[in-house]
Amino acid sequence: MISALENSTTSDEKPSAMISDFDTLIPRRGSGCIKYDRRPELDPFWVADMDFASAPAILEALHRRVDHGIFGYAHAHEGLNEAIHDYLRDRRGASVAAEHIVHLGGLVPALSLAARAFCKNGEALMTCTPVYPPFLGVHHDATAVSLITVDHVWDGCGWTFDWEAMEQAITPATRVFLLCNPQNPLGKVYSKSEVERLATFCERHDLMLVSDEIHCDLIFDETATPHFSALNLPERFAPRTITLLSPSKTWNIAGLGYAYAVITDDSPRRRFCAARGHTLSEINALSYYAAEAAYRHGEPWRRELMAYLRENRDTLVEIIGSRCPGMSIRTGEATYLAWIDARGLGVDNPALHFEKKAGLFLSDGAYFGWPGFIRFNFGCPRARMMEGLGKMIDAL
After folding, report:
1. What is the pLDDT of residue 278?
2. Which residues are bridge partners to 363 per DSSP?
3. Nearest in space to 247 (alpha carbons), one of 84, 64, 14, 51
4. Which residues contact 63 (CB under 8 A, 6 or more apart)?
5. CA atoms within 13 A on the CB side of 318
């Protein structure tokens, strides 16, 4: 039985062909998911959790693992390590040894580990807003560590760093820079020159660069805006670089709890791992096999997903621009999360406004560092998205 499990999950044999369906509405209320069950009276378009069934190859791999029947303590098996190696080589253009990978039960704990590992009393970490809310809170996990934030700016062509403001804001006590690339919630894909300039900034100020790249496979046009990973930086930056990755957002398996850090230099890797102590739980036994299946066999499904999401994005942008007075949006380059400027509505809290007037559960921009904005999750069947947008229009 064990050998059959190993053979079924680590071989290169492709799973049976299944047709992907992104239009079917799958009932989720009462399933224990926070998206629908945290505020069951509201129509949810908030948390970054898609309403699509995961890729068929992942479901098959999970069924095989469940059929084994035993779910004891687990570690990353050879098939997963090989799948990650191949993925990093083929998709990220990086050759990474297995010992450089730190397996984790999620990406947010990795942000916390970085704060604890590289900041001590009286020191600070830095990031740019708006940004995924945990970036603005993990400094509390370290003792007496402060947070420095600098707003992104629009340069006429796209969102970018405010380099002058960053130089003015940084202090000699700053130790870590947290980067989100592609950026959540802006949908920005940073260019090679931007990432290299940021790495140089970190080198000049003696900062660790922690690059969260969880959305890197959700880019709409990889020719126009290719993803430049921190793994592709020149070798001299390796001692101060941690790259965080996961298949969870792309293949909609966030609830299984799996991510990994790539740290090619021994010294920061030891410090990072030492910060774990006994605070992190064991990694889900099923998550390893879901991750392997995503990386081995999930690419065709991912391509279909991105084509579907692109149509959703374009439709949403057109509707916001033409039918939602007081609101505006810039077309995102990545993710299934729309960042909408609602300051023109003249209300104190746009998310609360749409909750009361339309029964919608949206992400409040204040939690990302920018009040007056809302984040709308369009990773759902188009009919659901149109229903949500219709309620928004009616509320206006």
Report:
1. 87
2. 375
3. 84
4. none
5. 7
* HSE of 291, CA atoms in CB hemisphere, 13 A: 35
- Distance, in Å, from the CA atom of 348 to the CA atom of 355, rounded to the nearest integer, reads 13
Residue 365: name the closest of 385, 347, 388 by CA: 347
Give me the pLDDT at residue 15, please. 64
- Residue with token string 């916390």: 112
Task: Give the tokens for residue 109.
Answer: 């704990």
Instruction: Write down the pTM of the prediction.
Output: 0.95
CATH 3.40.640.10 fits 78-297, yes or no: yes
Between CA 119 and CA 112 the distance in angstroms is: 11
Q: What is the pLDDT of residues 72-92, one digit of tens each?
A: 999 999 999 999 999 999 999
CB 363 within 8 A of CB 185: yes
Tokens of 11: 């071989």
- C-alpha distance from residue 43 to each of 66, 129, 137, 323, 357 (Å): 33, 27, 27, 20, 12
Task: Give the per-residue pLDDT at 3.
Answer: 37
Structure tokens that stand for 179 in this block: 């980067």
258-282: pLDDT as tens digits: 999 999 999 999 999 999 988 888 9
Q: What is the pLDDT of residues 102-126, one digit of tens each?
A: 999 999 999 999 999 999 999 999 9
35, 49 in Cβ contact below 8 A? yes
Q: Distance (Å, rounded) from C-alpha 315 to C-alpha 338? A: 11
Give the three-state DSSP class for 234.
coil
Contact between 259 and 114 (Cβ < 8 Å): no
d(CA 177, CA 195): 12
Query: Which tokens go with 251?
Result: 């293949």
- The DSSP annotation for 71-119 comes to --S----HHHHHHHHHHHHHTS-----GGGEEEES-SHHHHHHHHHHH-
